[in-house]
Amino acid sequence: MLSRALTWFQTAENRSSKKGWRREGALARFLQLDGRILSFDAYWDDRDTEYGYLHLLKVLYYLADDTMEVRDVTDKDHSFLIVRRSKLPKEFTELGGLGRDDPVTLLNVLGPTVERSRSLADPLDLARDKTEYFKHNNLTIGAVINVFGRRVVLTDCDNFTKEFYRVTYGLGEYSPLFTLNI
């Protein structure tokens, strides 16, 4: 079953490599890193608003597909999802329009009516907005990340994350930025 899926993926990758929206070896990377999660403790200080407080957060980075998830763990009994698992843009200015993350960009729609119209795909992706997303090399203890306009400070990480950074980048001792007592 897996070999059949790999064969399908390889032929699909060959067909779509001219489009530039699929990377070589994406399936192999996904299979190798599936289930590997970098976990960071963080906080978001919202005390300057009227009813704001200090939010203790858990930031999860999924190595398989470079997505992130942010949970509020201030309440010990419940955790609340702040940002669902998705790619997190480095710079947030506004919510993107419809079709922002579509694999094909349409240059123009030609024709007098909707039924008789044609569209032309942009083969070079010149009209696409080049959004940069967070990668695992952007996340370290003490880093301040922009989570959709909220300033989140990473304070600590788990043992797997420390080992990952030690093996990947040769970084040594990690100590927490500080511990928060509420």
From TrEMBL:
Q: Where is the DM10 domain positioned along the sequence?
A: 34-169
Name the Pfam families for this protein: DM10_dom
User: Which compartment or compartments is the protein found in?
Assistant: Cytoplasm, Cytoskeleton, Cilium axoneme
Q: What is its main location?
A: cytoplasm
Gene3D superfamilies given in the database record = 2.30.29.170
PROSITE patterns, A to Z: DM10 (PS51336)
The terms describing its cellular component in GO are: axoneme
Q: Report whether Manganese shows up as a keyword of the record.
A: no
Q: Which UniProt keywords apply?
A: Cell projection, Cytoplasm, Cytoskeleton, Repeat
InterPro entries recorded? DM10_dom, EFHC1/EFHC2/EFHB
- Phosphoprotein as a keyword of this entry, yes or no, is no
| Name recorded for this polypeptide | DM10 domain-containing protein
Its source organism is: Ranatra chinensis
